[in-house]
Amino acid sequence: MKINVMLVDDHHMVRKGLRFFLSTQSEIQVVAEAGNGKEALDLLETVKPDIVLMDLTMPVMDGIEATRQVKARFPDIKIIILTSFSDQDHVLPALKAGAEGYQLKDIEPDELVKCIKAVHQGIKQLHPDATTQLLSELTNGGGKENPEQKRFQTLTARERDVLCEITRGKGNKEIAADLYITEKTVKTHVSSILAKLDLHDRTQAAILATKNKWFE
């Protein structure tokens, strides 16, 4: 029986490349594609893959929020994060959201196949950089983080993208253009960011991010 895989990435060429390679594997078949987390959730109502290869930074709904919702609604579906980010700010939220695997997009094709098969068998698979971040969190005791850092950890990947843009002094229109989202969506993210960081305005958010060196 083949392992059914769904590809979730906002870059068409990435999905196309993955589909082409995975189609050469006799034990794996791609059954669906989505350009963001929302599309993936909609498709999962009818398509039930064994594995989802999930990007992190996507419009509409990012990979961490999508992972959280997929695991809540379809707990048997296993998720492998496939991203370019290996820092703690992305690794830990993804794993806490329920991802069974975390790999970087520079992974060798044969290693990706091994990862898919292992996760399908119930074995967690982490890129060495992701493992380093996890061990660092455990070694440092996690709970010793300052309150500001803890609040920052509650931000989704997309909210962090917006906060980073705010820190650079960009307005909603510029942020919307840079992240390929609507100004209305930017405003929604800004409101969520301020609420999660317990702040009153975007200037305070920029100052806080700069003080903590969140984007250096």
Short account of what is shown:
This protein has 216 residues and is of the alpha/beta class. Helices cover 53% and strands 13% of the residues.
What does this protein structure show overall?
Keywords: DNA-binding, Phosphoprotein, Transcription, Transcription regulation. Pfam families: GerE (PF00196), Response_reg (PF00072). It comes from Fictibacillus iocasae. InterPro entries: CheY-like_superfamily (IPR011006), NreC/VraR/RcsB-like_REC (IPR058245), Sig_transdc_resp-reg_C-effctor (IPR016032), Sig_transdc_resp-reg_receiver (IPR001789), Tscrpt_reg_LuxR_C (IPR000792), WalR-like (IPR039420). The N and C termini lie far apart (47 Å). The relative contact order is 0.10. This protein is α/β, with parallel strands linked by helices. The mean pLDDT is 90. The chain has a six-stranded parallel β-sheet with strand order 2-1-3-4-5-6, with helices on both faces. Helix 8 packs across helix 10 and helix 9 packs across helix 10. The protein has eleven helices and six strands. 53% of the residues lie in helices and 13% in strands. It is globular. It folds into two domains: 136 residues, Response regulator (Rossmann fold, 3-Layer(aba) Sandwich); 66 residues, Orthogonal Bundle (Arc Repressor Mutant, subunit A).
Biggest sheet details? 6 strands, parallel
Number of helices: 11
Assembly type? single chain
Q: Helix content range of the residues, please? A: 40-55%
CATH architecture descriptor of the largest domain: 3-Layer(aba) Sandwich
What gyration radius follows from the Cα positions, in whole Å? 18 Å
Low-confidence stretches are: none
Query: So what's the CATH class of the largest domain?
Result: Alpha Beta
Modified residues (4-aspartylphosphate): 55
Protein name: Response regulator
Domain Response regulatory: 4-120
Domain HTH luxR-type: 148-213
